[in-house]
């Protein structure tokens, strides 16, 4: 669609976009301020808040835990989510129609309720290890991305190509890896990126699933903020934004950023 | 035999994860609120008899509604302009929306802590302009929570709606204008009805997201502006009132699912292209 734009609309929209980006630059300014409290505009210039991150061992250990959980949780979600997405598309007539809705539940149920219920029923009642429940909770949280985003790719895949390969004698499993998977790779990459970012940023599920010695970076940031109001958190935030920029570069290189508007 | 079972074998692992770690635990939380020793409705009576908890519920509804309305309006304006921009400017605008969206909720809420704090940019500006003599406290107010939540959800709204607006065929708009419709009439009678289903879906995402949020009310509202998410955490981890926490959880689930079901049905009925 394209019509002529009223200048007032363009100005309002430009302001909205400016306000969307500005706070993130303010964090950057606050991170280099040579003051012991958070302030903007920055007073003086220092990088000591960045070196301070590495002196606080809790940031290092929780960052490693977050990366492990995001990697393993996303991998697990894809490992069980891709077969489910495949079956839901390939065998649509043979599976009940309500089954697809099961994989919407992790989006529908509030994350904080999920975290609380996992703590109550799994960590405490079953006594499973904290790391395992945290990992499974994250896998569950990102499972919808695996099923739905990969499913959207499969919906536009022509299954007659697969049938052709099988009728020419290619074994089903080999057919999946050499014929189906290459054709849905964009969906798999998109699902991986969205799932990884969601897991890295998650607060509400992790909130109840972290325990003694095991915590994730966002939870550690929240805990630090309750005690200190210094620019350390601003510098951690800057590093996280650098990670976001890296992810966006990967999205742009592999799929193009416009895929996010679809 | 194996061939007939293949579809099931493929969906079982993922279904088991949802069944064992979501349906059963969340179901247990909901059931616990009806199995109280003091009678089946006792936890709900306790919730609604407490003036404090009622206030928290109404505050959460109010904050979520205001956040949704502002996010829809701002998101629509921005998405409308994005949809009309030529390629290069459009990509810049999309990047400006995607970057905050991919940045975590903690970092984005934290930004507002710096903006609204005693030494924040708003206080500094007001002091420099001589509007105020002393820094004013803007944190831990309902306004602070709403500002940060709108900031959180506008990018989501922009991306949802720009997809919807891009999908409106150009011919329809040209037909309307060539038949003499003024720009505002085109907007009100053509664009708005066509965008309505997407608008409702976006609004539901914002409302349920606000209603169940934790990090933003925790950081910007604190104890003074407690919302359902922070109340659930406080009940469970500070006072160890697990029945109370489960009741908060149950109310959250019921409100979320009711709104999603009612509004998606409404969105489907309002879709002019489906009829």
- CATH-level-2 architecture of chain B: Orthogonal Bundle
Order of helices and strands of chain A: HHHHHHHHHHHHH
For the largest interface, the chains and their residue counts are: A-B, 90 and 93 residues
What is the multimeric organization of the chains shown?
Answer: heterodimer
Order of helices and strands of chain B: HHHHHHHHHHHH
How many domain units of chain A? 1
Q: Going by CATH, what is the homologous superfamily of chain A?
A: MetI-like
Helix content, binned percent of chain A? over 70%
Question: Per DSSP, what share of the residues of chain A sits in E-state strands of 2 or more residues?
Answer: under 5%
Mean pLDDT of chain A: 91
Uncertain runs of chain B:
none
Beta-strand portion of chain B reads under 5%
CATH architecture of chain A: Orthogonal Bundle
- Taking all Cα atoms into account, the compactness measure Rg of chain B is 23 Å
Number of domains of chain B: 1
Strand segment tally of chain B: 0
State the total count of DSSP E strands of chain A. 0
């Amino acid at each position: 669609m394209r019509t002529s734009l009223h200048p007032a609309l363009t100005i309002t929209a430009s302001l909205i976009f400016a306000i969307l980006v500005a706070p993130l630059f303010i964090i950057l300014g606050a991170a280099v301020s040579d003051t012991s409290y958070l302030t903007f505009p920055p007073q003086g210039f220092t990088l000591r808040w960045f070196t301070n991150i590495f002196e606080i061992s809790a940031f290092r250990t929780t960052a490693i835990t977050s990366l492990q959980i995001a990697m393993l949780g996303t991998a697990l979600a894809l490992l069980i989510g891709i077969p489910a997405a495949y079956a839901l598309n390939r065998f649509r007539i043979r599976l009940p129609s309500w089954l697809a809705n099961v994989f919407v539940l992790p989006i529908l149920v509030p994350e904080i309720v999920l975290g609380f219920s996992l703590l109550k029923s799994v960590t405490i009642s079953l006594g499973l290890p904290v790391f395992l429940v945290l990992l499974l909770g994250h896998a569950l949280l990102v499972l919808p991305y695996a099923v739905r985003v990969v499913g959207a790719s499969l919906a536009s895949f022509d299954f007659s190509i697969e049938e052709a390969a099988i009728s020419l004698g290619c074994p089903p499993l080999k057919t999946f890896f050499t014929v189906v998977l290459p054709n849905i790779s964009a969906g798999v990459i998109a699902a991986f990126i969205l799932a990884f970012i969601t897991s890295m940023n998650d607060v509400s599920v992790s909130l109840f699933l972290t325990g003694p010695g095991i915590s994730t970076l966002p939870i550690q940031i929240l805990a630090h903020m309750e005690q200190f109001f210094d620019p350390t958190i601003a510098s951690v935030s800057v590093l996280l934004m650098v990670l976001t920029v890296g992810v966006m570069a990967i999205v742009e290189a592999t799929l193009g950023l416009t895929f996010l508007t679809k | 035999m194996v061939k007939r079972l293949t579809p099931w074998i493929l969906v079982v692992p993922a279904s088991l994860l949802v069944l064992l770690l979501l349906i059963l635990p969340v179901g247990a939380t909901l059931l616990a609120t009806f199995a109280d020793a003091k009678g089946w409705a006792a936890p709900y009576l306790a919730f609604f008899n407490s003036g404090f908890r009622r206030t928290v519920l109404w505050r959460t509804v109010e904050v979520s509604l205001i956040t949704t309305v502002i996010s829809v309006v701002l998101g629509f304006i921005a998405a409308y302009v994005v949809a009309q921009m030529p390629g290069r400017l459009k990509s810049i605008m999309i990047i400006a929306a995607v970057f905050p969206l991919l940045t975590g909720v903690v970092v984005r809420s934290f930004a507002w802590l710096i903006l609204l704090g005693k030494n924040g940019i708003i206080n500094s500006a007001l002091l420099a302009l001589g509007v105020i003599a002393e820094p004013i406290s803007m944190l831990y107010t309902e306004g602070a929570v709403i500002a940060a939540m709108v900031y959180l959800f506008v990018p989501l709204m922009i991306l949802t709606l720009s997809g919807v607006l891009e999908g409106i065929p150009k011919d329809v708009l040209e037909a309307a204008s060539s038949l003499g419709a003024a720009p505002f009439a085109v907007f009100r009678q053509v664009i708005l009805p066509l965008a309505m289903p997407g608008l409702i879906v976006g609004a539901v995402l914002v409302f349920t997201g606000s209603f169940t949020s934790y990090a933003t009310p925790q950081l910007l509202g604190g104890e003074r502006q407690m919302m359902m998410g922070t109340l659930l955490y406080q009940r469970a981890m500070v006072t160890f009132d697990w029945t109370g926490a489960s009741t908060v959880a149950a109310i959250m689930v019921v409100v979320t699912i009711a709104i999603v079901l009612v509004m998606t049905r409404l969105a489907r009925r309002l879709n002019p292209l489906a009829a």
